[in-house]
Design a protein that fits this description.
Elements: H1 2-29, H2 31-49, H3 54-84, H4 90-122
Length: 123
């Protein structure tokens, strides 16, 4: 019984390690996630500067996470699609466009959240 618990813990730690490796790889190799990360850092600095409320922090952090997660999933979908069908294909293009559209929707709503939080503080 004890070995199973240790095995489970070891497996969970390995999973966290793989996830961390994936996040670092994403940040190192993907231009779009670098932009999203930079924007996240900028609005985080703005949050400290404008002393946003706890609720605003929670919403801002969720919005940043949403866009970055969507960007990561989009990157994974594009990589899988390119691996499965390296040549241009109409259906693969459609799949990639839909994944990019999800990132776009997340980014638009995140921008609206940012405007709602910061416009009253700036003006």
């Amino acid at each position: 019984m004890r070995n199973k618990k240790e095995s489970f813990l070891v497996n969970r730690l390995k999973s966290v390690g793989f996830a961390f490796k994936g996040a670092v790889l994403l940040l190192k190799t993907e231009a779009s996630i670098k932009i999203q990360f930079t924007l996240g850092v900028i609005v985080t600095i703005a949050g400290f500067y404008y002393n946003i409320s706890t609720t605003e922090w929670l919403i801002q952090l969720l919005a940043i996470a949403l866009v970055m997660c969507a960007e990561g999933v989009n990157t994974a979908i594009e990589a899988i699609a390119d691996f499965i069908h390296p040549e241009h294909h109409e259906k693969i293009g459609l799949i990639k466009d839909i994944a990019a559209g999800a990132v776009f929707i997340a980014a638009i709503f995140t921008s609206i959240i940012g405007l709602i939080i910061y416009i009253p503080k700036i003006f």
